[in-house]
User: Which sequence fits this backbone?
């Protein structure tokens, strides 16, 4: 992430050097810079909010793009923030935004940190819970934010690079860069999505995924704001439990055993193909004994699974192999034949 931070610092410095091209009415830079952030995102609109630092108020807030004023708001009583709505087109997508404000004494603030509009991250298959071994295809795209009717001449021929970022669940919020394929770096008048293949997924690849894009202007590398986040949780990463018969004081039970590495798990018993459990118990160690349920059919298939709390997230195992329970009057020695109660 050092490249990201260093290029951003260079960008702020260069952008501020050019800020003298703002109209003279905003040339007295005596107030601290505001903060520009995004508060709304849709297919073709982006909402930006310009916030003055605590204790400061502005009677006029101005939004600039590439040193050109695109919008302004005058607030007679003064306010700590102003909101702007930007309709996104090709001509605006890859140019930085910035805002500033003036107070009642006509003193103007320094410009905010340059802000590149964020891309949109999607994943196929569209699921936030995937199984170990699945292959995921992420797309970091500008397409949904672009006006397809805008002529290509409005967009400069700028190289674009996409980065996929993962904040690991187990690593206390540590963010790493998922290496991008060669095809994600393009030189094309038309921005193309950066496609990343992740998988077959394993335990260390779950977490929160985001992306950003980089543009080159004046031989400097600039980074966009990060995209929306997608949480990937891997199911099936826990050892699969076993379900067997167990006789306790002349009474048959169904014993579900999970991994000794996860004591205190929550165990559930299911009829096969049913979404909801017939019983749920909290284990003291790593197994739970379920009384044999009363059943309305001569034979029923049961499965069990367990869930554990790891950090702030619950993780659930796959279900055990089905176990057949046959209704009858004799227990006998056949482990598939039990008396239902």
Assistant:
């Amino acid at each position: 992430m050092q490249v990201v931070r260093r290029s951003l610092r260079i960008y702020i410095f260069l952008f501020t050097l050019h800020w003298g091209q703002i109209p003279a009415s905003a040339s007295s830079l005596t107030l601290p810079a505001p903060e520009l952030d995004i508060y709304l995102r849709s297919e073709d609109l982006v909402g930006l909010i310009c916030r003055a630092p605590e204790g400061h108020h502005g009677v006029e807030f101005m939004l600039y793009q590439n040193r050109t004023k695109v919008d302004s708001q005058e607030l007679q009583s003064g306010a700590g923030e102003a909101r702007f709505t930007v309709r996104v087109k090709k001509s605006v997508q890859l140019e930085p935004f910035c805002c500033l404000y003036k107070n009642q004494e006509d003193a103007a603030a320094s410009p905010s940190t340059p802000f590149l509009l964020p891309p949109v991250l999607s994943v196929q298959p569209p699921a936030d819970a995937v199984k170990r071994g699945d292959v995921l295809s992420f797309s970091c795209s500008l397409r949904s934010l672009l006006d397809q009717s805008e002529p290509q001449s409005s967009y400069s021929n700028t190289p674009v690079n996409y980065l996929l970022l993962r904040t690991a669940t187990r690593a206390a919020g540590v963010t790493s860069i998922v290496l991008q394929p060669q095809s994600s770096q393009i030189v094309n008048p038309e921005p193309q999505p950066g496609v990343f293949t992740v998988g077959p997924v394993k335990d260390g690849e779950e977490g929160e995924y985001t992306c950003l894009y980089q543009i080159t202007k004046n031989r400097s590398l600039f980074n966009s704001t990060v995209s929306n986040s997608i949480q990937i949780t891997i199911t099936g990463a826990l050892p699969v439990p076993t379900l067997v018969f167990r006789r306790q004081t002349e009474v048959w039970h169904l014993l579900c055993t999970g991994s000794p590495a996860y004591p205190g798990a929550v165990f559930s018993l299911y009829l096969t193909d049913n979404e909801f459990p017939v019983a749920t118990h909290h284990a003291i160690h790593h197994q739970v004994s379920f009384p044999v349920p009363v059943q309305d059919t001569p034979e029923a298939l049961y499965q069990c699974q367990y869930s554990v709390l790891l950090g702030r997230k619950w993780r659930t195992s796959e279900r055990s192999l089905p176990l057949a329970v046959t209704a009858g009057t004799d227990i006998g020695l056949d482990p598939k034949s039990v008396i239902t109660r």
Q: What stands out?
A: The radius of gyration is 29 Å.
